[in-house]
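Chapter review. Work through the record for Glycoside hydrolase family 3 C-terminal domain-containing protein before attempting the end-of-chapter questions.
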Amino acid sequence: MKDLKKLISEMTLEEKAGICSGADFWHTKAVERLQIPDMMMSDGPHGLRKQDLEGDHLGVNDSIKAVCFPAGCAMASSFDRELLHRVGETLGKECQAENVGVILGPAVNIKRSPLCGRNFEYYSEDPYAASEIATAHIEGVQSQNVGTSIKHFCLNNQETRRMSISAEVDERTMHEIYLSAFEGAVKNAKPWTVMCSYNRINGVFGSENQETLTDILRKRWGYEGFVVSDWSAVNDRVPGLKAGLDLEMPSSFGENDALIVEAVKKGELDEAVVDQAVERILNIVYRAQEGRKENAVFDRDADHELAREIAGETLVLLKNEDHILPLSKEQKLAVIGKYAKKPRFQGGGSSHINCHKVTAFLDCLEEGMDYVYAQGYDDDRDEINEQMITEAVEAAKDAAVAVIFAGLPDNFESEGYDRKHMRMPDCQNELIRRVTEVQKNVIVILHNGSPVEMPWISEVKGVIEAYLGGQAVGGAEYDVLFGRINPSGKLSETFPLKLSDNPSYLNFPGGQDTVEYKEGIFVGYRYYDFKEMDVLFPFGYGLSYTDFAYSNLKLDKETMKDSDTLTVSVDVTNTGKMAGKEVVEVYVRDLESSAVRPVRELKEFAKVALEPGETKTVTFALSKRAFAYYEPKVHDFYVEPGDFLVEIGRSSRDIVLSEKVTVTGTYLLADHYDENSLIGDAMRDERVSDIVKALMENGFMDFGGSEGGSGSEAISKDMMAAMFEYTPLRSGLSFSNGRLKRADLQEVLKKMNERIKK
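Structure tokens for Glycoside hydrolase family 3 C-terminal domain-containing protein:
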């Protein structure tokens, strides 16, 4: 590695300012005088969208022929870290073959609303799931000496007014939900770059937000790579540079470089800030250069077959009434729907891949199989075509099974705008309704990037969520339908019954200037489970062609400090007749908390492959964060001492085993007691509870009742204890009938605070 500090000392101010912005749409600047190379970045995250000539962010101009893997919405449903690593590794190799230094992605923003137009690119409504999946993806790409750019940092949860809207969110929600999705991936996988978001965060643009870019990302999380703007996200370049935005993309053609030079010359910007940004950028540029593999090959056909295998692992079996699936090749099929012939397999916008080939379901049907195809609908406009529906109905009448390929067309969800509703096109819903009137064996395969309402769910026997499964999705659908592979995907987001059930419904997408996250931490299943609301399909849900049984849940300790690690093990057995994979989900439930908390939260998961009759023991390690919530009083995650349940679930709604653990705190919330401190809080603090208890026993509180008298009937001991819970210590001056003096109370408080300091 070059001596970057020496190199930077040889650069002019103008050259250093120039390094802080792109040379064009995709390249960093080179400095020929000092033999500083440029570096190419390219869109991702589920395929290489490299543009050789004229660049544009939304993919209007063609990119090279490449391979489209399943989108983030599908990849997350695999719950398979090894799978994500393989995809990342393959993308890294493709980047090496195409001389790309950084591929932009993964995108880990939380799915706050099912309407977000970019949800197809995001992973989950759950921050732990999103963070773990992103970590595996990043590690896979970077194992090939190619960088990633985790995005969009942060609170980019809608497309409406995304370049100007201010996401208004409280501290706890921001850290517990939205930042947590980034935090684990940044700390554990160390992405080479972080991409800031377009939007404002509590009034301050993401591109010039000191709190997020420096205080949190660098100082708290220890991030060492460079921060790049989302394309054209820069509002005011000099404040952005001060806040921690290193690289502006794309090029501002010298405009913002001149502002940096001017600010330094006027003494408004310390040149050391510029030097630091340049060093961060060049560190990555040279890392990419030194990691170049000249013999790398982009084998598109091999990667296409991998895309089929990967897609097969992501499909989610949502319904399988009467075990209608898997199908037999001897059955006569009615194959209905445009997506059987021309599948929708990726989203629109900056991640759109120019695919070198596409495999549709119809491409996979073998010669001699008995089937008939009917298109059923057009997806370029939502109009019911009676002729197409009639043809589909006639085809379905004479078949043993009708398989309908449906979903959301391109114009329903894309980068740049949000969905207006959660419905599928009326023409498709009508098609499904009409087919079910003449055919009792109907299977629906969905192609969509986010949840949809299913008014026909009770009328069909099978539903498969294929999401946006990449260019080989038709092959994966064939493999699952005919049992070549056993579906093992689980939903990484809740499917509500209707849009108005969603917690963000009243506050999405907000007004002209702001959107308020009034639902707080209650995003997705955290809300639905707390409210005990019926949902269409819960978080973590997914069926299999085989059955799995759980047993022998063990915790390695019954009591632990919050600084300890809890080892959890559980046995999983395949009790069916087909090999399969099961996602084991570990949730943690706080049985009693002074802070409002969700019913349960996902804290670990693992995917295990099992042959029929086989049992495997799956082991997990739960550390402090598994039991903690974010406490604004201390600006950090905090474990409140008490009892917790460790739960094993098939979904957030189907808990099959649980065991209790008691957690004691090495750090207690109260760091000072005064007259307004509550008795209940002090009684729970092991450091001072004996002092308060002695005060109570000495007549600190006396309502004048006597044991067995009418006073004790009016206020029992239990009632008095409940009232004391939220009574401040100063109340003893009134309720002790004069026995407690202020000097006595001050002495007690002094003793309590001395204990804390110890």
